[in-house]
Design brief:
With 481 residues, this protein is of the alpha+beta class. The chain folds into 2 domains: 242 residues, Spore Coat Polysaccharide Biosynthesis Protein SpsA, Chain A, CATH 3.90.550; 132 residues, Bit1 (3-Layer(aba) Sandwich). It is 35% helix and 17% strand. The protein contains 13 helices and 17 strands. The strands form 4 sheets. An 8-stranded mixed beta sheet has the order 1-2-3-9-5-10-12-13. A 4-stranded mixed beta sheet has the order 15-14-17-16, sandwiched between helices. It starts with a strand and ends in a 6-residue tail after the last helix. Belongs to the PTH2 family. GO terms for molecular function: glycosyltransferase activity; peptidyl-tRNA hydrolase activity. Pfam families: Glyco_transf_64, PTH2. It catalyses: an N-acyl-L-alpha-aminoacyl-tRNA + H2O = an N-acyl-L-amino acid + a tRNA + H(+).
């Protein structure tokens, strides 16, 4: 049968039509189709529905129109459906009649006719009584393949399920569902009284077919779809395509009035200006944002922020994280990096020993606790805190003091840093006591406990920077990390 013969290059298709003891309906169906050339015909060798989907060497074209004897497109609509198939659905089964299914609580499928109701409008199957298909899909339906052999065997055993089987084979190959396309008149259905679908228990049997295919082959069709393409009249008596609007009446498009558009734009601009001005006035006067909230915002932006790390043991001068060495003394106290001065009764202070500058190369030793199970990243962070803590302590010494001279020499000669290990908190405290007794800088870092280890755990002791020989008196016997 020739389709759209007026094109410079003729696009053609074959028609595969199935009949079932209905000569009257068959004649009515063929009459509008055979107004032009008479096609060739063949009869099936067996009275089996698989024969409809069996390929034939006489099929010379890419497309097939699978049809029954009681359903057909009007000739004027057939052209539209065929061209829509060429443009939108070559790898899909293009159909006039779609079917849906539901799944009950036990997992069984209920075969239903699609409707506009939610949950009943997403179709997955087609009826092969009016379907455009690539001939290659028939080639896949017919070979000696284990899966397809089982499909055809099932069709031979259970009458009237070849369309469900073909939907399965198609979706198995393409992972695509069918596409519903209709002309202006949708399709013509003669609805004869003599037919398989008129038999008692037809819908129940179809439901069982869907359940069996789902259980035996994994799925029936994918994905579900609500898209349709149909032909509807426009005010200019021409035709247009509607997509993604299944079963909805078409409304003619109208051009918006230019004056109306301008009015909407101006009105929107005026409303936005007035609303923004009013919002600003009410906000500044405290009608929308209370003065308490505004003051809280000011404090958050401008006041020094209390550290949310773990508490500092003021008696032991433990730092919970690296100090901010750009701060002054007041800011350090505010952020918990420096102990606040307590008012105490006058006491006689012992003179703290001060390490003397002997001109020797300086180094900083980082003593890491390995019994806490810290990761490499955690150890690196804690060592960084300890380094900055020691640096901050020495940087606050007077400019002409021995401590400042040691710090400058350490900076100038490459900031040597050595990491060693201990296995307990007691060792950390003992090493810090010895270091301070010799006048060395010794700072202990205490973790906040928000990630890997318990809050308040002493993680790293920093000793120095100080002359190498003096530091070795404290840490020389420890193993490298």
């Amino acid at each position: 049968m020739h389709i759209n013969a007026d094109e410079p290059i003729t696009v053609t298709t074959s028609l595969v039509l199935q009949t079932y003891r209905r000569p009257k309906e068959l004649a009515n169906t063929l009459k509008p189709i055979l107004n032009e050339d008479t096609p060739s015909s063949r009869g099936a060798q067996d009275a089996a529905l698989n024969e409809k989907l069996w390929p034939d060497l006489d099929y010379k074209y890419q497309a097939l129109l699978l049809s029954d004897d009681d359903v057909y497109y009007q000739p004027k609509d057939l052209e539209f459906v065929f061209q829509s198939w060429r443009k939108f659905g070559r790898i899909r089964l293009v159909e006039a009649l779609a079917r849906c299914y539901l799944i009950d609580a036990s997992g069984d499928r209920e075969y239903i006719i699609c409707t506009n109701r939610k949950g009943r409008d997403d179709y997955t199957m087609i009826l092969t009584n009016l379907t455009f298909s690539l001939i290659s899909f028939l080639d896949y339906y017919s070979p000696n393949d284990a899966v397809v052999d089982r499909v055809r065997e099932y069709v031979d055993q259970d009458f009237n399920c070849e369309d469900i089987a073909f939907s399965y084979v198609h979706s198995l190959l393409t992972v695509e569902g069918p596409l519903l396309i209709s002309g202006h008149d949708i399709y013509v259905n003669l609805a004869p009284s003599q037919g398989i679908s008129r038999k008692k228990g037809h819908m129940k049997a179809r439901s069982q077919y869907v359940t069996d295919f789902s259980e035996n082959f994994g799925f029936i069709a994918a994905p579900r779809d609500v898209t349709s393409i149909n032909l509807a009249p426009s005010p200019n008596s021409q035709h247009h395509i509607s997509k993604n609007l299944p079963h909805l009446p078409q409304k003619p498009a109208t051009m918006p009035d230019q004056g109306e558009q301008t009015g909407v734009i101006i009105s929107t601009a005026i409303v936005a200006l007035i609303t923004g001005y009013a919002f600003g006035v009410f906000t500044t006067r405290g009608y929308l944002i209370s003065p308490d909230l505004a003051e809280e915002r000011r404090r958050n932006l401008h006041d020094p922020v209390e550290s949310d790390e773990s508490e500092i043991d003021e008696d032991d001068s433990l730092l919970d994280h690296a100090p901010n060495w750009t701060n002054g003394a007041d800011a350090d106290q505010k952020q918990g990096l420096r102990n606040r001065m307590k008012e105490k009764a006058p006491i006689v202070e012992e003179k703290t020993p001060v390490v003397q500058d002997n001109g020797e190369e300086c180094k900083l030793v980082l003593v890491v606790r390995t019994d806490l199970g810290m990761t490499k990243g955690k150890i690196a962070a804690q060592c960084s805190h300890a380094t900055l803590a020691c640096y901050k302590t020495l940087s606050h010494a007077p400019a002409d003091s021995p401590q400042r001279k040691l710090l400058k020499r350490w900076e100038r000669l490459g900031q040597a840093k050595i990491a060693v290990q201990v296995k307990s908190q007691d060792e950390i405290l003992e090493l810090r006591r010895k270091a301070r007794s010799l006048g060395l800088t010794a700072e202990v870092i205490q973790d906040a406990g928000r990630t890997q280890i318990e809050a308040g755990s002493m993680t790293v002791l920093g000793v120095g920077p100080a002359p190498r020989s003096i530091v070795d008196q404290i840490t020389g016997g420890l193993k490298l990390l």
